[in-house]
Amino acid sequence: MHFAVRALGSDGVVSMTVDAVDAAAARTQVCAQTLRPLSVIAAEPKRRAQGGQFSLPIFSQELLGLLEAGLSLTETIDALREKEQRAVARAVLEKLSRALNEGLRFSVALEAQPEHFPALYIGLMRAAERTSSLPDSLARYIEYRSRLDSVRSRVISALIYPVILAAVGLLVTLFLLGYVVPRFAAVYQGTGRELPWLSQQLIAWGTFASSHVQALMLGGGGLLVAALLAGRTWWRGGGLLRLLRRLPGVGNTVATFELTRLYLSLGTLLDGGLPILQAMQLAEGLLSAETLVRYRTAAAAIGRGESVSQAFEAAALITPVALRLLRVGERSGQLGAMMGRAARFHDGEIARRIDVFARTFEPLLMMAIGLVVGTIVVLLYMPIFDLAGSL
After folding, report:
1. 197 and 309 housed in the same domain
2. Strand partners of residue 37
3. What is the CATH number of the domain that holds 233?
4. Are 32 and 175 contained in the same domain?
5. Residue 5: which of 89, 145, 114, 123 has the closest Cα?
6. 173-231 pLDDT, tens per residue?
C-alpha cells in the first residue's frame, strides 16, 4: 500500500510517499531515514506510466559511469539532465540538480522524490555519504537490482507459456460450447434418435445457449467484470501470495524466494555501511504481512543483543544453508558478504525449481486442455458414429 507521509527532519517538514504493508511499517521506514513522522495517511498509488519513464537502474548505471570518469556529483546530474529527452526523467533530474545546487545532501535530494527513489536506495546513498564511497554503493545497488530482476524475469518467463496456453484452451472451449454445440443441437433435434446421456447433456446446453444468446452474453460480461474487480482486490491484498504459500511444493519455493530477496537486500545495505537494525528497517517493505511479524520479532531480539543468526533462526527466517553462512559471517565480521552468498546460493536453487516446474507443468496443462476439447468433440460426434454404424 502507498501512504502519504509528512515528517519532520533536519531540513524542516517534508512530504513523501512510502510503499509499505501497513501504517506502522510506513512509520518505521520514515524513522529509519532519521525523520520524525507527523502524519501517515493511506493514499492511492501513483500511476505506473508516470514513474515508469524514469528507470532507476539506468540512472544508477549512468551516474556510476560518470562519477568513475572523474566528474563531481553535481556535474554528473547536470550532464544527465542536459542529455535527457523524456519529460518525466528530465523533471526528476532537474529537481535533483536544483537541490544539490542549494547545498542539500544527495540523500536528502532523493528523499524529496520517494515515488522514484525507494527507501532502500536512499538509505544506501546516505550510508555512502558517511564513508565517501558513493561509486561503491551505486555498484552494489546495480548488482542488487540486476540479480533481483534476473530471478523475477525467470519466474515471469516460466509463467508466460502456461498462461498463453491456458488462455487459448479456454477460448477454444468457449468457442465449441458457444458456437459449435448449438449448431449441432439444431441438427440432432430432428433426427429422432436416442443419444448417449453425455451427448444429451451437451446438446441440451447447446439448445439452451442458442435460445438465450443475449442473456448469456450479458451474464458472461457481468461475471467477467465482477471477476476482474474481485481479482484486482484479491491481488492487491496479497491473495495470490497467500494462495501460493498453501500449495504443496510451491509454498516452500515462494518462501525461499522471499527470504532470498531479504538476504540480498540486507547484504547490500550492510556492505554499504549501514548498521544491522537500520538495514532491517529499510528492508521491511520487501516482506509480506505474515513474514513481517516474525521479522520484527527478530529485530527486537537483535536489539536486545542476540546474534543475527540466533534471532533469524528463532523467527523461522532462515534456511539451513543461510544459517551456517551467517554464523561464518558473524565470526569473520563479514555478515553482509555472507548474506549475499546465501542469496546467490538460493538464486540457483530457485532457478532449478523453475526449470522443473516448466518441464512438468506445461505437458500436464496441454494434456488437460486436450482432454477437455477432445471430450467435447467426441460427445458431439458420437451420434454421427452411431448413425454410421447402423447403415
Report:
1. yes
2. 7
3. 1.20.81.30
4. no
5. 114
6. 878 777 777 777 666 665 556 666 776 777 777 777 777 777 877 887 888 788 878 77
* Counts of helices then strands in the chain (DSSP H, E): 18, 3
Shared domain for 166 and 105, answered yes or no, is no
Do residues 357 and 160 make contact, with C-beta atoms less than 8 angstroms apart? no
Domain of residue 352, residue span: 133-391
Which of helix, strand or coil describes residue 2? strand
Residue 150 belongs to a domain: yes
Same domain, 245 and 291: yes
Long-range own/partner contacts, residues 333-340 (CB < 8 A, 24 or more apart): 335/270, 335/276, 335/308, 336/266, 336/267, 336/268, 336/269, 336/270, 336/271, 337/267, 337/271, 338/267, 339/263, 339/264, 339/266, 339/267, 339/270, 340/263, 340/264, 340/267, 340/268, 340/271
Are both 40 and 59 inside the same structural domain? no
Q: Calculate the alpha carbon distances from 382 to 179, 323, 378 in Å.
A: 18, 62, 6
pLDDT digits (tens, 9 = 90+) for 223-238: 878 887 877 776 666 6
Number of domains in the chain: 3
Beta carbons of 266 and 280 less than 8 angstroms apart: yes
Find cell 477437455 and name the residue. 372
* Single-letter code of the amino acid located at 242: R
Q: How confident is the model over 113-148, as pLDDT tens digits?
A: 888 888 888 888 888 887 777 888 888 888 888 877
> What gap in Å lies between CA 69 and CA 86, rounded to an integer?
24
- Which of 117, 142, 171 represents a domain boundary (last residue)? 117
From CA 299, how far away is CA 306, in angstroms rounded?
9
Assigned domain for 67 exists? yes
| Nine-digit cell string for 110 | 532523493
Residues 4, 64 within the same domain: no
Same domain, 293 and 255: yes
User: Cβ distance 207 to 189 under 8 Å?
Assistant: yes
